[in-house]
Amino acid sequence: MSAPTVLVVEDEPSQREVLVYNLEAEGYDVLSADAGDAAWEMARDEGPDLILLDWMLPEVSGIEVCRRIKAAPETRAIPVVMISARAEELDRVRGLETGADDYVVKPYSVPELMARIRTQLRRVRPASVGATLEHGDVSLDAETHRVTRAGTEIHLGPTEFRLLSTFLERPGRVWSREQLLDRVWGRDIHVDTRTVDVHVGRLRKALRNATGEDDPIRTVRGAGYALG
Hints:
alpha/beta; Rossmann fold; Arc Repressor Mutant, subunit A; 2 domains; five-stranded parallel beta sheet; 43% helix; elongated
């Protein structure tokens, strides 16, 4: 599975470099922006897994960017961790009421910030932090790479395992082939969308053969695939 993508929005070059360096050291894919309008466009176009958002930005403030992100259907589920030198309780409350999922005051501890990021990612990308995922009779242990259906162990190839992880993280969500390519193969890998169909077919076969149960993955005509 591709690494979670974090968008860093910080207009101070030195602070932005520190954040990017530490996030990349943790294994994340990192995007960065230094202004509010650019941050909003990247959030909408790139769909990162998490956004680190500075309050004080030129032209469009972090508060306004956060409000836009949480108001738009395509971005509202992205966790926003707001970073600010404003430490007053009223400022924290304002940031959280605008929609921020967490609020970190400068100067911050980098290890604590990374822990807060992991906490937010555990909610939206649980497989990336080693969680066990379950839906119906299907269970996936991301740490041991063990998959079972109705108690019967299923042996999957690496790509099928990453596909199943993606489906289990958001049961019911319809994933387009392009979205699955980004999530499973990675943004920088150029693979034909028909490859997705081949691997979804292999995953379906493995899940059916394990117990003889019905196929839990449905094809949504003209849209993509969904679990359940």
